[in-house]
């Protein structure tokens, strides 16, 4: 079966950080139009596909995306509208070829990923199946992922507080997705009370988590365990576990990891994580070391990889070739998956496949700049990877994804929940 893109256009809208991004609208074979909102990161890996921004300081301080919008409405639409495609893979390959650069910098990864996401949605619609089912690879069993609620925000996602970027609670032991969301919301409420009671700010960071002025990651973890237990849950893998994303590239300066006033070598940082995972129910650490510290990553994986999930984000950037190299070098045991880091849905699915076949786990992820688009909820269910991180259980653009998971669960009682 083939299909034709009958309409394709884009406009500039705002993301959750009040920065411009794209909404791409597309239809196939004259059917109803669908839209995709393009996400955008703040702590980006240097090898990510490149977002095209206008650079015109007079508009949005240079962050406008009218050139990327123009590329969708102009060159991309001219190249793909009316043309026959056998499927999403063929369209994505055409977009990659049209762009012609390694990093999608000519037309913009933000332009290309919006077209790719909208096309996937339109194809699911024309096949008469939910998006998650359309995205399910052959031979893979879909499942509802463990939501990873980022309840304390630091690093590049909040002003002047913690060095570690994300402290997430993950209800691994919840019986269902809906109960996992309830646990997340109840613990979030308890945490607000604990923070306020201790005189901390309960202002929010970019991903809806609290952004208190607390010095050390260990102090935050102590509070989190309290919040989990006060809410009536068990802290640990059989209840509610904790996942970290220190986003260490951001505090790796002059060859040292600079945490809470200390200057740590790679090996000292690794030992700090060993202590943290001994003391607290931390089951997963993403970007524990910097993206250019591959040797450190290998030692981290040798030291903790047997008992802790070590997730590569900035170091892998959802890139199939880099991920393949990282697997060969044994630098981690898990990959963070962000559609806009690589720029097409097809390449994203390819990176997921590579991980699955190597026995690496995968966690689907939002960006710190989001729209209410809930594409990634379906991607997480369809690929059966068992993990999704999409911020706190607060703020509309984050809650949209969790609510989408609840809706999928309600309509599909037989879908299993959990890591798998
Ligand atoms: O580091 C991360 O994992 C992401 C999402 O939480 O942040 P950003 O989108 O800013 O890169
Ligand atoms: Mg990260």
From TrEMBL:
GO terms for MF: magnesium ion binding; phosphopyruvate hydratase activity
CDD domains according to UniProt: enolase
GO annotation terms (biological process): glycolytic process
Domain Enolase N-terminal: 5-135
UniProt pathway annotation: Carbohydrate degradation; glycolysis; pyruvate from D-glyceraldehyde 3-phosphate: step 4/5
Listed GO CC annotations: cell surface; extracellular region; phosphopyruvate hydratase complex
Annotated substrate binding sites: 157, 166, 286, 313, 365-368, 389
Reaction equation(s) it catalyzes: (2R)-2-phosphoglycerate = phosphoenolpyruvate + H2O
Catalytic residues (positions): 207, 338
Root EC class: lyase
Family: Belongs to the enolase family.
Protein name (record): Enolase
Organism: Actinocrinis puniceicyclus
Lineage: Bacteria, Bacillati, Actinomycetota, Actinomycetes, Catenulisporales
Gene: eno
